[in-house]
Amino acid sequence: xxxxxxxSIMIWMLVLPVMLCLxxxxxxxxxxxxxxxxxxxxxxxxxSGEEIVGIDVDVVAEIAxxxxxxxxxxxxxxxxxxxxxxxxxxSLAAAGITVSADREQQVNxxxxxxxxxxxxxxxxxxxxxxxxxxxxxxxxxxSGTTGDLYVAEHIGEPxxxxxxxxxxxxxxxxxxxxxxxxxxxxxxxVARNPKxxxxxxxxxxxxxxxxxxKNHPQLLSMLNATLExxxxxxxxxxxxxxxxxxxxxEVADEEATSTGLVASFYANFVKNxxxxxxxxxxxxxxxxxxxxxxxxxxxxxxxxxxxxxxxQTGRYRVLDLLCRLYLTVVRGTPVVVQLLIIYFVxxxxxxxxxxxxxxxxxxxxxxxxVAEIIRSGIMAVDKGQMEAGRSLGLGYGYTMRSIIMPQxxxxxxxxLGNEFIVLLKETSICGYxxxxxxxxxxxxxxxxxxxxxLPLLAVALxxxxxxxxxxxxxxxxxxxxxxxxx
Amino acid sequence: MNDNPIIELRxxxxxxxxHRVINGVSLAVNQGEVVFLVGxxxxxxxxxxxxxxxxxxxxxxxxxxxxxxxxxxxxALNAYRMRVGMVFQHFNLFPHLNIVQNITLAPVKAGIMTLxxxxxxxxxxxxxxxxADKAEAYPSQLSGGQKQRVAIVRALAMEPEVLxxxxxxxxxxxxxxxxxQSLMRDxxxxxxxxxxxxxDVGFACELADRIIxxxxxxxxxxxxxxxxxxxxxxxxxxxxxxxxxS
Lengths: 486, 246
Hints:
The complex is a heterodimer of chains A (486) and B (246). Chain A is an alpha/beta fold. Chain A has three domains: 2-21 and 275-485, Orthogonal Bundle (MetI-like fold); 31-112 and 209-256, D-Maltodextrin-Binding Protein, domain 2 (3-Layer(aba) Sandwich), CATH 3.40.190.10; 114-207, D-Maltodextrin-Binding Protein, domain 2, CATH 3.40.190.10. In chain A, 60% of the residues lie in helices and 12% in strands. Chain A contains 19 helices and 14 strands. Chain A has helices at residues 2-22, 55-66, 78-87, 101-106, 146-154, 164-172, 183-192, 217-232, 235-244, 254-257, 261-270, 275-313, 317-331, 335-346, 354-380, 383-391, 396-426, 438-449, 453-483; strands at residues 32-37, 40-41, 45-48, 51-53, 70-75, 92-93, 108-109, 114-123, 139-142, 159-161, 178-182, 196-198, 204-208, 211-212. In chain A, strands 8, 9, 10, 11, 12 and 13 form a six-stranded mixed sheet that branches. In chain A, strands 5-1-6-14-7 form a five-stranded mixed sheet, sandwiched between helices. Chain A has a three-stranded antiparallel sheet with strand order 2-3-4. Chain A is elongated, with a radius of gyration of 26 Å. The model of chain A is unreliable at 1-6, 8-29 and 248-256 (pLDDT under 50). Chain B has nine helices and nine strands. Chain B has helices spanning 45-52, 74-83, 99-110, 115-128, 144-156, 174-189, 201-207, 225-229, 234-245; strands spanning 7-16, 19-29, 34-38, 60-65, 84-87, 162-166, 193-197, 210-215, 218-223. In chain B, the strands form two sheets. Chain B has a six-stranded mixed sheet, with helices on both faces. Chain B starts with 6 loop residues before the first strand and ends with a helix. The model of chain B has no long low-confidence stretch (mean pLDDT 91). The chains are: A alpha/beta (486), B alpha/beta (246). Chain A binds chain B through residues 382, 384-385, 387-396, 398, 402-403, 406-407, 410, 484-486, and chain B through 53, 55, 74, 78-82, 85-86, 88, 90, 92-96, 98, 105-106, 109-110, 138-141, 151, 154-155, 158.
């Protein structure tokens, strides 16, 4: 968190003007409970077809109903749900969150609504019989969960996966020796995978509660009152019960992992229209990449021109300094961190479409790389070209625009093409802000079918064909530009 | 010397990285005159020429055009450069534009001519230098001599009062020098005011009204070709001798 706040100061300095005009459109929250969760944690929250269902979802919906409110689910990475509560992106987080002292530093917790245990899943016939046998083994966990914390503290560094389903898929594939998960999700996973079993002895026992922002004590007391009532009239137990016995659409895709390729293909793509995750994700990926590339090329060219003008003529010193600061910050930090900062910090209290957030983040990121590419292109144009333009009485700006830039652009077309290919693939981290892009689409299928092979292969093939098409178009453009000068 | 020179330098000074390369050069060029700047390498010939077009900004002294120094603003310098054209050693044609576009770009942008007018003028000029068939070609399809002649035509299209030549034949293969020199001869006959930096003393003696001999950033001699040949200065004698046999 310390790092985050340092970053936020830097970013704030850069985007203050943007913020000033955005605060005007800050949205008033209606009587709606927006719930942050990570729908990869059955039976607490998971995808049933298109819909996110689960114990947490039903509990929050019931709380909303009893208080005359509506509820809505905001799906994101588990690591992000606490931050989403803190920044006010959502009203609360219900994601099978175990109460811990560290987390209580950041958010308030309601009274517990469920009790869970961390259990150990191992393959049938493995030589791990109890927790004592775990030391020295590779153990898969869901990153940021109490299982993760427990294993790290008491056993050794775990293998951290983005969600429990991935960890279980890794176990099935023999990548890890055991997986530590909450008991209910673990039972679901094992029910779907006859090759796995749960050790009789749990690792720990713990309690789940809902996280709310520390600045909203009235929301906390409302939740507590309603939860207490729900516990006393047996509603909580009923909800949990209903999921323990539920064998709904999402379950039992043994075809996916066990039998032949055709059945596996059917389970991964055809059944429940799962191909739609990929199709819709693909649209999002293309939208974000195309718009970000446009921002990148416009803003990047502008910065590139300012930088090389400053280098060559000594003009725009202050602007040049700002551009250099921008390049240093953007190129010096990972794009995933930038994406998270823009989502949680800069647009933290503003309701904007996540696609827009991603476009802004990737556009600003790409601009920095494009700027340096364009600058190198400008520098590579013979100095005599500028002199010839100037000697004819043309101004600096006009010479730059009509003589230098066309040549510079042609010089750097291969490098620009490369940048856009990288950009296209970089958008695969959109899942961090709960955007279902192509990669996340594949991820969702995997979390439902436990088959890593086909969904990932499909995702890879789609990216590959996009890159092949893009490269081909760039090559054609390059040839057309070159024809003139042969 | 005439009383109304087109271009006059007074005590021109230029430093590069603390090193004084032009050390008080004064000279004047009259309407219709052809003046050559010669001298050993590093004498500052090109720098003097580039200062006349403000591609280098002088560190001291004055560059006068019709008796007045142009203001050092972008706008005033652009207007000045339209009237004082320049031809470079390496031609500096625009490789992404074809020959006609190379010639018409500046006059159209400056508003001197409309595009059709500029194109007609370009064709006419290309006709004159025998390159009408290259109108649609790109610079890379031309020989060095052809490129330099197009570059001269490009400068002429602005209808300047003075043309500056910075070693116009130095980058050419020997067999192409002739065609460029012959075009320069034609221009001189038409009365164009020309200032030429050149290593080619023979050509200078043939074409120049006056030859200015520079050494170490100073004017050593400013004479007609005949006077220069008769000069008693040892450095000049030595220079002319070496040039003629090389």
